């Protein structure tokens, strides 16, 4: 790459970052449904036609923001896992749950973008899937490590659900028992339900010591997937 090409690439990265940051401010103020390329362009002092060279449509910009958000929470989960790599599996599970909650509380609008109400008229493309899977893969890895190490507690599912558990294992949870795969998906949904309830005010006048409550709930989720109590 020549010096001129490198300078152009850096300039494009800087403008792209500025566009996304302006879009995040608009998300915070107006919500994802009202995201507008024209409004973003006005905030940055750009003409709309110039912005379209970076993001051809609102959906392209939304997709970039969604991938960034999934990658950010995924990185938080992975850092938490790695920071307690020598801890027992239940402790690692709880540490990851707490990291995901911390990220959500620090980035409520980005959390709402990826785990809140769907954006009308928008359908997420397949390109979002790898980033969206990062948190789930951290939890799957903890369960897999536990199975290969200290072992998992006995789990059971109804006979008519076992084929679905086997499909989950084949699709995204290799080397995990079907019973644990089913429990993992349930725990994943419950985790984000807990966080969403806190973030969107459903715990107001219900749960006061939310950090302690969340840690307890995360420990119960660890038990539910066969890790035991941390």
TrEMBL record:
Residue span, HTH tetR-type domain: 13-73
This protein's UniProt keywords: DNA-binding, Transcription, Transcription regulation
Entries under Pfam families matching the protein: TetR_C_33, TetR_N
DNA-binding is among the record's keywords: yes
PANTHER family xrefs: HTH-TYPE TRANSCRIPTIONAL REGULATOR RUTR, HTH-TYPE TRANSCRIPTIONAL REGULATOR RV1816
Superkingdom field: Bacteria
DNA-binding region boundaries: 36-55
Species, as recorded: Streptomyces canarius
Protein biosynthesis as UniProt keyword: no
Name this polypeptide is given: TetR family transcriptional regulator
Coiled coil: none
